[in-house]
Amino acid sequence: MAFLDRLKSHGKTPAPNDLGSKILRDDKALRSKLQETNKKIPRYLFRMWHAGSGGNKKLNTTERITPLAFNEKTCHKSVYDMSAHEFVDNTRSHLYGDRVATEFSSWSASPRFVLHYATHERKDAYIAIIDTLGLRRDNKNDMFYVPTLAPIFDNLGLARVPNYSAYDWEFLVHGVVEGRHYKAVSFKSLCDAGLVDYLPTLETYVDAWGTDRLALPTPIAPFSKAELEDLDGIAKLFGPPSSMRSAIFIALFCCKKRAGFGNKLKEHELKEIVQYLGGRVNIPHDWSDSLLLCSSMPDLCYEDNRQMVNVMRALSTYCWGRGARARFAKGVDVSTPDAVTDSPLGEMSLVDIERPVKPGAGNVAGRE
After folding, report:
1. Considering only Cβ atoms within 10 Å of each terminal Cβ, which end of the chain, N or C, has fewer?
2. Which of 54, 88, 80, 81 is nearest to 68 (CA)?
3. 173 by DSSP, 3-state: which?
4. DSSP label at residue 120
5. H or E stretch at 250
6. Are 87 and 146 in contact (CB under 8 A)?
7. C-alpha distances in Å from residue 217, one per residue of 26, 137, 212
8. Which residues contact 154 (CB under 8 A, 6 or more apart)?
9. Are 24 and 84 in contact, with CB atoms under 8 Å apart?
10. Residue 284 CB contacts under 8 Å (≥ 6 apart), including other chains
11. 159-185: pLDDT as tens digits
C-alpha cells in the first residue's frame, strides 16, 4: 500500500482571501462544475467491502452502504449543502483513509480491480454493484469520478487539497446506497459458485494496484456455451434474471479479453448471451446509448470497463435496434417490428429471445 501512502504527501498550501467557506449551493460557478462532473459516471460501479470497512460492521451490509457520517447523523443531505472547505476536507480524509466521519463510499468502474481487491480480505469480502442511473434518479445520490475534481479545486487556493488526479480507479458516492439498484454477494459464495475456476488468478492474493491493473490479460479468449453456463451459475447469486444480474454477468464476461474488445461479437454469439441472460427483457434498451453507459467519463483506461461498454451496447442494439432510447422517449413501442427495422442485425434482432427452459423447470425470466 506504499503507493497509496505516497499520495498523502500531495497537498496544496493555503492562499490568502480563501473563499472556501461559501456553501456550494450558493456558489453558482462551483456548483455548476460539480453538477457537470456528476453526469460523467458510468452506468455500473463496483465495490469490495468487508466487515471492517469504515470501522463499523453495521455500515456495510447486503441491504445498504451507510457512510459513517450518515450513521452518526452528522451528515449533509446533499454535497451542495457543504462548503468547499468541508467538501475538500471530507474527501481528502476519505481518500487518505483517515478516521473521519466520511459522507462518501468508494467505488470503481473496473470489476476486475474490485475482484483483485477482494483477494486482500477473501473470506470476509463482499462484491457489490450499483446501477448509478437508477440511484441518481430514485435516491438522489451524488457521484464523482475523483480525478475530475482536480481541475475544479486545485486552483482555488484551498488548504490541503488532495492529489485527486492520482485516484484513477476511484469514484465517490455521497449518501446511503440502498434499494433495488444495489446488490452485494460474498466473495466466498462467488468463489464457491465457480468464480475461481473462471478466473484462476483469484485463487491467491492479487495486487489490485499492480502495474497491469489497467490492461486485460492476453491472449484473446474465445467463449463457449459451457463458459456462459458457468457465468450464469455465478451471476444467479445476485438474484433472479434482471438488468442488474445481466450487468454482473457481462462484467465477469469482460474480465477476459474478447475479440475487438467486444466489438466483434457475431450475431449468433450475441443471441447465445441474451438467452443466458433470460431474454431481451433483461437487456435495457438504453444500453445502446453510450452517454448512459460511460457518460463521456475518462475511466475507459481500464480495459475491462471499456469492453463492458462495447458488449452492452452491442447486446442492446441486437435486441432493440439502434436509437431505441429515442423512440422510447417518443412513446414508440420499441418491441414492435416496425420500431426496430433500422437494426443493423436485421430481423433476428426482432425475435423476442427467451432463455431455453430446462425440463421440469418453470420460466424464471423476470424484470428489474
Report:
1. N
2. 54
3. strand
4. T
5. helix 243-253
6. no
7. 47, 36, 8
8. 12, 161, 164
9. yes
10. 243, 316
11. 789 999 999 899 999 999 999 999 999
Q: CA nearest 45: which of 367, 236, 368, 308? A: 308
The per-residue b/e assignment along 43-59, b for 16 or more CB within 10 angstroms, e otherwise, is bbbbbbbbeebbeeeeb
**In the block, residue with C-alpha cell 430514485:** 138
- pTM of the predicted model as reported, rounded to 2 decimal places: 0.86
Count the residues in the chain.
368
Does residue 286 have a pLDDT over 90? no
Residues 194, 131: contact at Cβ < 8 Å? no
Residue 344 CB neighbours (<10 A): 10
Report the percentage of the chain scoring pLDDT > 90: 67
- Distance separating alpha carbons of residues 92 and 74, to the nearest angstrom: 17
Rounded to 10 degrees, the C-alpha dihedral 73/74/80/81 comes to: 100
The kind and range of the H/E element at 104 are strand 104-107
DSSP string, 42-98: -SEEEEEE-TTGGG-TTSB-SSEE--HHHHTT---SSGGGSBHHHHHHHHHHHHHT-
Q: Which three cell numbers stand for residue 148?
A: 475530475
Distance CA(351)–CA(349), nearest Å, equals 6
- 3-state helix, strand, coil split of the chain in percent (to 5) is 45, 10, 45
Sequence letter at residue 80? Y
DSSP 8-state class, residue 215: S
Give me Rg for the CA atoms of the chain: 21
